[in-house]
Write a structure and sequence with these properties.
The complex is a heterodimer of chains A (255) and B (316). Chain A has 255 residues and is mostly helical. Chain A has eleven helices and no strands. In chain B, the strands form three sheets. Chain B has a six-stranded mixed sheet with strand order 6-7-8-3-9-10, sandwiched between helices. In chain B, strands 5-4-1-2-15 form a five-stranded antiparallel sheet, covered by helices on one side. A four-stranded antiparallel sheet of chain B has the order 12-13-11-14. The chains are: A mainly alpha (255), B alpha/beta (316). At the A-B interface, α1 and α4 of A face β6, α2 and α4 of B.
Chain lengths: 255, 316
């Protein structure tokens, strides 16, 4: 089983790193991270915060875009272009295909995040602003990418590439605004409304769990429990999404 | 034991946002024997690709059973013995031919030396030895078909299923694919391929199945399906000068050449005997036999338009 998952993962990674869009996104990310230095000149006394904030935000944005566009592109393309036919006509379980695709995309994101982070750290080291907690912030961003990729894979199994991209990006935005749903629930007077908000709050991905950018930029202490919770959340939520993707793909008619 | 067996298989589709059901296959029963080349012919939309997808577990039947090598076709393990080439395969643009074959070989858990040897052998077998290091996006259609065929053979399968393997190929490409199919048979493998190129079917198939609108209209050896009787002869003559000939009817005439249809062997002998008297020179005598194409057209016409042409058949 692992051999076959590895084979799919390796092929997905190979395909992804030869994709022009990946390099385009990487170049944009590097430009944005570098641009933070120019932007910081416009402020007085907050140069370090601006560079760190802008850098982390760039890694976040371009990591998510990579997860969505490369992720959905590579999974949907297999179905649309029927390359999946030749794979599933071999002794390959459908869940192995889904997990292999996910693993390949995760490796791609790891490399992508590593390249962006190295450039970011280089900029900070030159400026003498490097802070070890940035590594933690980027690790949590990477966890977020892994979760977004799992959602992208699920939607690719369910729908067309465009719809899958829209749904994944929508969940990314919703996932960062989920605190407002909790707030809304608390203010509602009707019990069903409160209940619905509560259910949605637990069902939708809470990407705020992976966001410690503000704390790191402002040099605030980060509770170890929060990191542990983010890790557990990724494992539980991510594996549920992937399990659902496998279950959906298992019965999918490949027409 | 049949290599592939479909028993009373039904398959329907529902279009998006519709409760209407369209039947693609209606009670299809088919049995493919070991070591034969089976040509699966039919009009566009007849259900050939659907049959293949069902056999490979890519889609699921509404009813009926499908067995590969005596086992339930939905079992993944049974596909160890199967190779498949889809119609007009789009492959991975950014992989080289070697990487592409190596990737498929990995799915069979072959170790690295075995994979290297297999890839080398397959590239040679499909005539792409000197193109293995090029990315597939630089391959021509014929080359893609050949590399696709190579991936179907990566596990040295007992059953090779090919969906329209000759479509879009030039005569040389078609001949190469034909040769590979015949080579597979010579190695004792079973080949099941769908096509609507009837000349290829007549040339290489041991048996054929004719699918029309989701139903198998005919199955058997070509000489069983197509009558070997000669209903008439076409006689081509040159230099016919003095009026009409006493037997046969003129089909066409151009300058001093004339093509005559003769309906019986007796008339043919009489015609040949009197040719000199009419100052005519015999050019050719061709017995008109029923071809697979005649059978195909007759069955297709008798069934009316194909489902794809009129949006499918509504389920009862």
């Amino acid at each position: 089983m692992l051999t076959r998952i590895n084979a799919i993962a390796l092929n997905t990674f190979r395909e992804a790193i030869r994709h022009r869009i990946l390099y385009l996104l990487l170049v944009f990310a590097v430009v944005m991270i570098s641009f933070a230095q120019i932007l910081s000149l416009l402020t007085v006394g907050s140069e370090e915060k601006i560079i760190k904030d802008f850098g982390l935000a760039s890694i976040d944005l371009f990591g998510v875009l990579t997860a969505v566009f490369i992720g959905i592109g590579l999974v949907s393309k297999e179905i649309e272009r029927r390359t999946v036919y030749t794979l599933l006509a071999k002794p390959l379980h459908r869940f192995e295909f889904v997990l292999g695709k996910y693993a390949g995309l995760a490796i791609t994101l790891l490399v992508n995040t590593a390249v962006m982070s190295l450039w970011f750290f280089l900029v900070l080291l030159i400026k003498g602003m490097f802070d070890g907690m940035l590594v933690m912030a980027i690790l949590l961003l990477f966890f977020q990418f892994l979760l977004i990729t799992a959602l992208a894979v699920l939607f690719s199994c369910l729908s067309t590439p465009i719809l899958a991209s829209v749904m994944t990006l929508a969940l990314y935005v919703i996932g960062h605004l989920l605190w407002s749903l909790d707030l809304l629930g608390a203010r509602l007077t009707s019990a069903p409304g409160r209940g619905l908000c509560r259910v949605l709050y637990f069902l939708l991905p809470n990407l705020g769990n992976f966001d410690i950018k503000g704390e790191v930029v402002h040099g605030l202490a980060i509770d170890g429990g929060r990191i542990l919770w983010a890790t557990l959340y990724l494992i539980l939520y991510g594996s549920t999404v992937l399990w659902t993707a496998c279950a959906v793909f298992e019965r999918k008619e490949l027409q | 034991m049949p290599v592939l067996e479909l028993d009373d298989v039904h398959k329907s589709y529902r279009s998006h946002l519709s409760i209407r059901k369209y039947w693609i296959l209606r009670g299809l029963s088919l049995s493919i024997r070991e070591g034969e080349i089976f040509g699966y012919i039919g009009t566009n939309g007849a259900g050939k690709t659907t049959t293949i997808k069902l056999a490979l577990g890519l889609i699921f039947p509404d009813a009926g059973t499908i067995r590969l090598f005596g086992q339930d076709a939905s079992r993944v393990e049974v596909r160890r013995r199967v190779g498949f080439l889809p119609e007009n395969p789009y492959l991975y643009d950014y992989l080289t031919g070697e990487e592409f074959l190596d990737f498929h070989a990995r799915l069979f858990a072959l170790d690295a030396p075995a994979r290297r040897k297999r890839v080398r052998d397959l590239l040679e077998r499909v005539g792409l030895s000197n193109r293995g290091d090029r990315q597939l996006r630089h391959y021509s259609k014929g080359m893609l078909q050949r590399i696709g065929l190579a991936q179907a053979l990566v596990n040295d399968p007992d059953l090779v299923i090919l969906d329209e393997p000759m479509s879009g190929l030039d005569p040389i490409g078609r001949r190469e694919v034909r040769d590979i199919i015949l080579d597979l048979k010579a190695r004792g493998r079973t080949v099941f391929f769908s096509t609507h190129i009837l000349s290829d079917t007549e040339m290489i198939c041991d048996r054929v199945g004719l699918l029309v609108k989701g139903s198998l209209k005919a199955v058997g050896r070509i000489d069983e399906l197509v009558s070997r009787d000669v209903p008439y002869w076409e006689v081509a003559l040159r230099g016919v000068t003095n009026g009409g000939l006493p037997c046969g009817s003129v089909m066409s005439r151009r300058d001093d050449r004339v093509l005559i249809r003769v309906d019986s062997q007796g008339d043919l002998h009489r015609l040949l005997a009197i040719l000199n008297g009419h100052g005519a020179e015999l050019v050719s005598v061709t017995p008109a036999r029923q071809s697979l194409e005649d059978l195909f057209i007759r069955e297709a016409r008798s069934a009316g338009p194909a489902p794809a042409e009129r949006g499918g058949q509504r389920a009862h």
